[in-house]
Design a protein that fits this description.
The complex is a heterodimer of chains A (265) and B (191).
Chain A (H helix, E strand, L loop, with lengths): L2 H30 L4 H19 L4 H23 L1 H22 L3 H10 L7 H30 L2 H5 L5 H22 L1 H18 L3 H25 L4 H24 L1
Helix pairs in contact in A: 1-6, 1-8, 1-9, 1-10, 2-3, 2-4, 2-5, 2-8, 2-9, 3-4, 3-8, 4-5, 5-8, 6-8, 8-9, 9-10, 9-11, 10-11
Chain B lengths: L3 E11 L3 E11 L3 E5 L6 H8 L4 E9 L5 E4 L13 H8 L8 H4 L11 H13 L5 E5 L7 H16 L3 E5 L3 H7 L2 E4 L5
Parallel strand pairs in B: 3-7, 3-8, 5-6, 6-7
Antiparallel strand pairs in B: 1-2, 1-4
The chains are: A mainly alpha (265), B alpha/beta (191).
Chain lengths: 265, 191
Amino acid sequence: MSLDSLDLFLQPFFTGLWFALLLPLLGCYLRLRQEWLAALAYAHVAAAGALLAMALSWPLGLGGFAAAGLAALGRRPLAARHGQGTVFALYLLAGWAAAVLLVANLPTAEQLGHALFDGQLYFTDRLQLWIGGLWCLGALLVLRRLSRSLLLGQLFPEFFRARQLPAWPAQVGFDLLAAGSLALGTMTLGVMATFALVFIPPWLAFSRAGNWRRGLLTALLVGVGSYLGVFVAALVFDQAFGPLLVLGLVGVGLVMGSIRSSRSR
Amino acid sequence: MSETLLAAQGLVAGWEQPVAGPLDFALQAGEIVGLVGPNGVGKSTLLAALVGNARIFQGRIERRPGVRLSLQSQHLPPLAGLPLSGRELLALTGASAVGLPDWLADCLERRLDRLSGGQRQYLALWAVLQAPAEVVLLDEPSNNLDQAGTAHLAGALRARAAAGAGLLLVSHDPELVAAVCDRRVMLGERA
C-alpha cells in the first residue's frame, strides 16, 4: 500500500474517530437535558446551511456551522414562547424543507445534498481532519468543564440563582457547543449517522450504567466500538459508511437492550 | 453578638400577582426560624422570592454580602432514568456524606432511581442541607420521611445550626417545628 493510499484511508478514519469520541458523550448531556431531538434538529439546519453556502459560493463548513450556531442562539427566546420540544421540531422541519428545496433548485447541490444526508466520510480531506480534531478536542475539554454545571442546572435549578451565580454561560455555552459539534458531525458523517451516535450510545448507557461516570464510559465504548467495527465492515464489503453505521448502532442497541430485558425478567 | 445573614422587611411576593406576605423577619447565624401558617398562605412563594425565583411586589430583602443560600424545594430532582449515584449527587452540591444515617450511607454507590422514594428524598435533602452555604432554606423537608427519618433530620438541622448556619424552615409538621426551631414567624392570609 503506497503512502498516498494509506493517507487516503487514515484521513477519514481519524476524522470520523474524533466524532465517534465526542458525539456519544455530547449525547449523554443532551439526554440529561431531555434535548436528544436537538441532534436531529441541528443536523438538518446545518445541512441546509451548508447547501445555502454552496448556492452563495461561500465555504460549506462555514454555512453549516453558522446556521447551526444561529439556531442555537435563537433557541432560548423561541423556547420561552413555544416550548423546547416544539422549537426543535420546527428546526428539524424547516432545515429539512430548506435543504430539499435547495437541492431541487440547484443542479450542483444534488451531490452535496446526498453526501450530507447519506454521509461522506470517505471524501474528507486533511483540512477537515484538522478542523474536526481541534474542534473535538476543544469540545471534550469544555464539556468536562461544563459537566457539573449542566448536572446542577438540571437537578437543582435553584442552585445558581440562590448563590447569585449566573447560570447562562454554561447553558448558552453548551447550546453553542452542541450546535457546532452537530454541524461538523453532520458535514463529516452525515445527518443520520451523527444522530445515531448522539442517540443510541447514551440510550444504552443510561439504562445500564450504575453511575454517571460509568454511563459516560459505556456511551464512549459503544460509540467508538461501533465506529471501528463499521469502518472496517464498510471497507471490506464496499458499502456506504453512514447507513452501515446507523444499522450497526441499531443492531448493538437491540442486542444490548434484549440482554438487559432478559436479565431483568 | 450574632450577625444577621438574611432579613426581609414588608416582603410581599407572588408570580403574576401578590400571593404572600407581608413578611418581616431576620435570620441570625446559628438559629433556626420556622415559617408557619395555614395551607395556601404562600410560604413556598416567599422562599422562592428570597432566592430570586418569585417576583417581589413590595418590601425588600437584605442579604449580608457574600452569604450563600441553599434552597430545598418540594420538587424532587428529576432522577428517573438517570445513571447517577447518591455519592455523585452529594458531590454535585459539595455536600459531605458524614453524618448520613446508616440506611442511606450503605446505598450511596447505588443509582438514585433504584432507591426507595424516601431514600431519594432524604439524599436530595441532604445534598442541599449540607452544601457549603451560610443560609439554608427548607420547604417541607419532612415530606415522605418516616419517624426515624424525621428524627434524624431534626438532629441534622440542629447540628447545621450549631456549625453556624442560619436555617429558615417551612413545615406543616408541628412536632418538627417545635423540636428544632428557636422561634417562629406566623404568616396570615392576605386580605
